[in-house]
Amino acid sequence: MPDIRKLSFLSFFLSGFSALSYQVLWKRYLSLALGSTVYAISSVIAVFMVGIGIGSVLFGRFCDRRRRPFLIYFFLQVSIGVTTILIPVFHPMILKAVSSLHSWIFMLLIISPLLLLPSILMGGTFPVLSRALEPVSKERRVVPGGLYFINTAGGVSGALITGFFLIKYLGMNLTYAMTVLVSFISGMIIIPFIRNEIGVRDYGGIEKIGGLLIPFAAFLTGFSGIGLEVLWNRVLGIYLPNTTYTFSTILVLYLIGLSTGSYIYYKRLKKFNPLSVAGLTLTFISVFILISLLLLPHLPDIVLKVPFVKSPELRYILPAIIISIFLFLPATVLMGITFPLFLKVYTSEKRPGESTGMLYLFNTIGSTIGPLFAGFFLIKSIGTYRSIVLLGVIYLIIGSLFFLRDRKKLIFPIIVFLLMGALYIRRPPMILPPSIKRAKNRKDRVLFYREFPSGTVVVVEDMNTGIRACYVDNSVVVGTAYDALKAVKLLGNLPLLFNQKPEDVLVIGFGTGITTSS
Hints:
Layout (H helix, E strand, L loop, with lengths): L3 H31 L3 H27 L4 H16 L1 H13 L5 H29 L1 H7 L3 H27 L1 H17 L2 H5 L17 H27 L4 H26 L4 H22 L3 H7 L6 H16 L1 H18 L5 H50 L9 H15 L18 E9 L2 E8 L5 E5 L2 E5 L2 H17 L15 H4 L1
Antiparallel strand pairs: 1-2, 2-3, 3-4
Helix pairs in contact: 1-2, 1-4, 1-5, 1-7, 1-8, 2-5, 2-16, 3-5, 3-8, 4-5, 5-16, 7-8, 7-11, 7-15, 10-15, 10-16, 11-14, 11-15, 12-15, 12-16, 12-17, 15-16, 16-17
């Protein structure tokens, strides 16, 4: 009989590959209907995450009452492939339906059911396969943490290959068809195990540890982890060129950090006391966040050295890789340790599917609320820098809860807490575009600095020449130099060459008003 562990891991790798590929493709399809605004895209991701959470609980409980979890897993994978076909099929009708609507909320209500159904099915795969591999876990040390690592590694591959290569060379429709095929293959791989499946045993003896602490920690780590991803993306949006490849690189590196952390736990740390490992891991996440905040003002110096690289492709991708290594990669590796660690502590052998699904639900709810809260509220109210500090403190508080039984270990978290508090209280440094520091003899003073959910606006003045420039993130949108004003003034003058006595004038995008004033 084929090796159950190896083929199940291969199936779940392909499942993760297809899930992230679907997400990339859905964002491309639905951006035509919803637009590419922060609010619309964030809401689409939120619907996806809600579906994952619902599916993990529903199918986690369902598989605990059934004795053939491999059959349920096969049904889930095939159903994912079938239901995802509906999105490209209904896409033309969706465009017609939403073209008459003026609110992205109503558009989302139309699109949500198409996203929700396959997302619920995807959420069910993790607890169901964990339940199916329960007998193998007893014999070959296969744990849910190993599945989490494999699935995350598949997601990294899916986001990387689909975002950088498949769409570019095969197009949207063929790439989507290949992704659906991967979903079917993922299900067919485990067909040999369905025929010989005699049901899983109901082991006893190990009960849940920690009560509500572990689900609460899973919620807050999901909330803070994905919230930090939004905030770090905002920082890098100011420091790096605003290209699709740049932010795809950031996403892939973030996922690589998470998968590396889960692999480290699966191979090296599962023998140690999980509560002590949890406390140390969460505390050191705060330490690395603290270090990244201290490095933040010096990152533009790294970006300015990259133009000496000759390859045009590397000039876009290399800055993102270098800055991500300094800014968040160490912290994300530790974040990847936390969830498989929580699984080991919380998962009940009496109800493995339900307990795994419940923990996955709490983590997913946090992962859904975190980016929305960070993107819509925190940035606008306290700014990006202090928002990063606040989410770092949340990790520190969770870590401290695991040290309550040994209060001598609380000294280190208290020291880190005081340092984080000092960073929050002091005036946060302004996150400025690297091009402001490009010329050595140039002396700029900041006249205006404000962060908005859609971007950071900065107005600077060269103290040597008096020339002013207005930046939105990393891009100069207008300046007082002749070359900067010439282009936008011509936009207002050119139409008048064709109609010298207009009665009405339409200006699309007021901006700073230069075109309108001409």
